[in-house]
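Long-time lurker. I teach an intro course on protein structure, and each term I like to show students one example going from raw sequence to a predicted 3D structure in C-alpha cell notation. This year I'd like something fresh instead of my usual example. Would anyone be willing to generate the C-alpha cells for the chain below so I can use it in lecture? Attribution to the forum is fine with me.
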Amino acid sequence: AGDDDMSMVGEFGYLLANGNTNTSSITAKLNTTQEFSTWGYQVIGNALYKQNQQEIDGEKSTVPSAQKLFISTQFDQKFADTDNRIFVYGEYENNRFSGFHYQATLAAGWTAKLWNNKKSEFKYSLGTGYAISERKSDSRYDKGLILRAAMEYKRQFSDYASFRQLLSTETDQSFTKAKSETSISTRLTGDLGMKFS
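-- Reply from a regular --
Happy to contribute to a lecture. Here you go:
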C-alpha cells in the first residue's frame, strides 16, 4: 500500500426464516484502513440484531434474541522502517444478551509486519492496556491492566479470491477474552463480492 491508500470493505446480511420457527436477523460490518506516510489507522464496526417469534399464553409476539454492537480502532505511528510501528488500540462492545452492560479496552504497544508482498501479509501486535466492564447482575465494575496480543494473516489467491485469519486476545489474572475470525472472500463483479466466514 502506498501513501494515502484507503481500503473500505462493507458487509450486509439479512436472513428471514419462516416455518416452525419464525426468525429474522440483520448483520452489518465495516472495515476501513488507510495508510499515510508517517501513520495509519484501521476502524472496524460490527452490528447484529436478531428477533424470534414466540407464543406466550396463546398469543404470538416478536422478541429480540440478539442485539450487539462492536467498534474498534487502531492508530499506528510508523518508524523509518514502515513495517515496524507503535500502536494505540481501543474497542467498545455492547451486547444486550451478555452478562455485561458494556466492555471497553484501551491498549498501546508494538506492531510489526513479519512479511508483506503481493501474495500475502502477516502482522502482529503486542501491548499492554486497561480494560473495564460493567456487570449486569450487580452493576459492579471489573477493571484492571491487561495484556493484548493480536495477529492477522492475509493471502491473495488470485484477483478474485482471498483468505484472511484474525486472532486477538486480551488477558489479565482473572479473565481471558479471545476472538477469532476466518474468512474467504471472492469478488463477483466490480466492487460486489461474497464472503464466507
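Some talking points for your students: The chain has no helices and eleven strands. The mean pLDDT is 89.
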